[in-house]
């Protein structure tokens, strides 16, 4: 078996384990990212928009939807994780081998020392990440839909209920009776089973084949996350080293704890910088129609910014 295949299988296995452990947090996080109508109504009414804690939302989700609610869309998510990690590491290893061969060939001609520069490594990671995004984006669209289905369904029912109540306030006695019957039916309506096949049909019905690649642009931009992390890490490491030299301390390599802390800070910084793109991606991939309000649909990254 080739090294690229081994790396791909290893990445897929590790990704599946990590996904199973963290999936409930991902579900809550996705719902937080796609929530907007409630916050807007609170803002208009002057109410404070204090977000509930992640733990509170997890407990609330368990209470209303059971433990299965935390794992909505887990099956396609595991497939997506295995595919993403496998594709990424497979193409990364292939590109790495090519670049290393080129570096060795150049060194034989007296060009370079035969090693691959850091910029080349970042470029390889970006290309492998872009290939991964292009191939697996449809899976993550389905996962987002399944994670937010109950939330979207609740919003649609709330919107329909508000519309019926407005009609009742303007209707005559005969019309009110009819509208009351419709309201009773609406409030007794239960969510239908929602699986992968239903999600596929819904996405195709809304946007056709191109709907499976919604959120592609922000996701491709997020491929730069490792590059931002590396730049922050190198900057922090150099500052730490220069501080030591300024205090005339003996020069030594960073300790394991220092590397860990700098790496954590760098990852935190890169996540903060790219998080808005993650929110945009989730909202583009979530159910696009909130009730009957077509203006609430996001059809692209620029329209997302316009409506928000």
TrEMBL record:
Keyword Transmembrane: yes
GO biological process, one term: transmembrane transport
Coiled-coil boundaries: none
UniProt region (Disordered), positions on chain: 31-51
Primary location class: membrane
Membrane-crossing segments per the record: 116-135, 212-233, 254-278
Record keywords: Membrane, Repeat, Transmembrane, Transmembrane helix, Transport
Localization of this protein: Membrane
Pfam families, A to Z: Mito_carr
Annotated signal sequence range: none
GO cellular component, one term: membrane
InterPro entries (UniProt xref): MCP_dom_sf, MCP_transmembrane, SLC25A32-like
Membrane topology term: Multi-pass membrane protein
Solcar repeat locations: 2-98, 116-239
Similarity field: Belongs to the mitochondrial carrier (TC 2.A.29) family.
UniProt name for this protein: Peroxisomal nicotinamide adenine dinucleotide carrier
